[in-house]
């Protein structure tokens, strides 16, 4: 094979003009993989560890913003946000990004996909390495590609509906890294999900049982992505089956005990440390502090720390199932938010009456043990045992709630009551992780009992996003449409 025909970019973006036209990417340079070691370096690229973008949080009911001058800090003023952030927060129709600005989720995902394609299609014929290692590396790339498409389809496609998926617009499936200069079609939602499923099922046979760092997919990582995929499809029995493939081994259920941590003043980044000292930082998987919870690590490269305030809706969600009179404290809110004031090292800053998101840790948009517990709990509440659902909730909450009082399963034999409890917990666990809440809103809006209109206010302005509104779907970027004008768009 003549490798020079292919793009395989160690810094994870493509190179030639035809693909540059379609994806809207500018090349950052590239190398040509020839050996197994080259492909190992490619899959270890720092670019491939990142995924998504925090802007999806602005679709949700988690954040709030204020008018200029309402507080003495400018962090969460609406006027100070980027154009696309304001457009999303105010639910503007049409294109979200203004001319000359690119959509980070779309561009980064397809850049990553081209790198994964180079590995998938070429590593087996590379020099060096043994066959088992090559198949494992190919399998890791298959999981990476599947994960990118699972993110893309739930941002740019309609929410999965078995009755319409075969005709609903999805995203273009690009399975080759070969530069051809041709046009690309917009595949259906069903076709994209089928490719995700095929990639994951193919990968599962060749993945390792364990890896030193959870950025490299293992069998459990593959099962966890399958579980998420089936949950998003509404196939609760299969989502439960794959979650249980992980949770059935008690050694896998390792959770961070939030009660062992505190927040400190005088610093911004990594302001959450153990109670015993100010040096042992919260284990988010970076800088020598591995997280026991992460199954498949994919970090959101930027985040909304200090730039959004907690909405009244989110505050009520934290309070809803926390018995403060009995001494319960939801440590997720306590550790990751600051109320009224904070000191980041340059003196006290005041924002009286507001609570600001100040986690300043690496946010994993990949899969985790808490997610699998919540998926299993939701699926049990829907199609299995409500008692098991409550058991999974108690397991998670014991690590999150100070002075935790366990739920009595006998009080939640009604499926709807148990399910609501699970969804409440999911809201709190994934607070301010934009993608997770965004997709939950989209999928739950299809059920009338959970349908919700999102209301955002700034000063005298009020904007609403009704359930199932087409504005939930991000548009194909304008710079992509310029080179592919025949790609169909949703009206939004």
Report what the structure shows.
The structure is a single chain. It contains 15 helices and twelve strands. By secondary structure, the protein is an alpha+beta fold. It has a domain at 36-178 and 185-256 and 366-483: Alpha Horseshoe (Serine Threonine Protein Phosphatase 5, Tetratricopeptide repeat), CATH 1.25.40. Strands 1-5 form a two-stranded antiparallel ribbon. A two-stranded antiparallel ribbon has the order 2-3. A hairpin with a 4-residue loop joins strand 7 and strand 8.
Quick overview of this protein structure:
The protein is an alpha+beta fold and 492 residues long. The chain has 15 helices and 12 strands. Helix 5 runs antiparallel to helix 6 and helix 12 packs parallel to helix 13.
SSE blueprint and pairings:
Blueprint: H1 17-23, H2 36-43, E1 63-64, H3 83-89, H4 104-122, H5 131-156, H6 189-204, H7 219-233, H8 236-247, E2 261-263, E3 272-274, E4 294-296, E5 309-310, H9 312-320, E6 329-330, H10 331-336, E7 337-343, E8 348-357, E9 367-368, H11 369-383, H12 386-397, E10 401-402, H13 415-429, H14 434-444, E11 454-458, E12 461-465, H15 478-483
Antiparallel strand pairs: 1-5, 2-3, 4-9, 6-10, 7-8, 11-12
């Amino acid at each position: 094979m003549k490798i020079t025909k292919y793009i395989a970019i160690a810094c994870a973006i493509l190179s030639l003009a035809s693909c540059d036209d379609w994806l809207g990417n500018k090349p950052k340079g590239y190398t040509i993989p020839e050996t197994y070691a080259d492909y190992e370096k490619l899959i270890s690229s720092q670019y491939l560890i990142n995924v998504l973008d925090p802007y999806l949080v602005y679709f949700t009911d988690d954040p709030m913003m204020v008018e200029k001058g309402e507080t003495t800090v400018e962090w969460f003023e609406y006027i100070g946000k980027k154009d696309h952030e304001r457009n999303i927060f105010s639910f503007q129709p049409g294109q979200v990004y203004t001319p000359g600005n690119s959509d980070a989720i779309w561009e980064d995902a397809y850049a990553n996909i081209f790198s994964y394609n180079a590995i998938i299609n070429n590593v087996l014929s590379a020099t060096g390495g043994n066959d088992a290692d090559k198949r494992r590396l190919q399998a890791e790339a298959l999981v990476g590609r599947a994960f990118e498409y699972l993110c893309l389809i739930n941002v740019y496609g309609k929410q999965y509906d078995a009755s319409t998926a075969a005709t609903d617009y999805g995203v273009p499936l690009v399975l080759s890294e070969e530069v051809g200069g041709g046009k690309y079609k917009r595949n259906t939602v069903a076709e994209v999900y089928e490719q995700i499923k095929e990639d994951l099922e193919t990968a599962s046979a060749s993945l390792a049982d364990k890896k030193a760092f959870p950025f490299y997919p293992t069998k459990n990582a593959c099962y966890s992505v399958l579980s998420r995929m089936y949950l998003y499809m509404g196939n609760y029995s299969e989502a439960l089956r794959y979650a249980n493939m992980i949770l059935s081994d008690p050694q896998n259920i390792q959770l961070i005990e939030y009660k062992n941590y505190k927040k400190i003043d005088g610093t911004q980044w990594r302001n959450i440390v153990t109670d015993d000292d100010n040096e042992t930082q919260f284990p988010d998987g970076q800088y020598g502090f591995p997280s026991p919870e992460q199954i498949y690590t994919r970090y959101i490269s930027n985040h909304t720390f200090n730039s959004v305030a907690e909405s009244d809706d989110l505050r009520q969600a934290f309070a809803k199932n926390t018995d403060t009179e009995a001494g319960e404290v939801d440590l997720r809110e306590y550790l990751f938010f600051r109320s009224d004031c904070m000191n980041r090292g340059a003196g006290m800053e005041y924002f009286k009456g507001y609570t600001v998101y100040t986690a300043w840790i690496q946010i994993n948009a990949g899969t985790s043990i808490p997610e699998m517990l919540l998926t299993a709990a939701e699926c049990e509440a829907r199609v299995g045992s409500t008692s098991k659902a409550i058991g999974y909730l108690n397991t998670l909450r014991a690590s999150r709630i100070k002075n935790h009082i366990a739920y009595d399963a006998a009080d939640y034999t009604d499926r709807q009551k148990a399910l609501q409890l699970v969804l409440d917990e999911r809201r709190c666990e994934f607070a301010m992780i934009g993608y997770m809440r965004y997709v939950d809103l989209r999928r739950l809006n299809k059920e009338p009992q959970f349908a919700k209109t999102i209301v955002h206010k700034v000063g005298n302005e009020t904007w609403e996003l009704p359930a199932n509104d087409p504005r939930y779907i991000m548009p194909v970027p304008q710079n992509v449409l310029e080179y592919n004008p025949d790609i169909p768009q949703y009206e939004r």
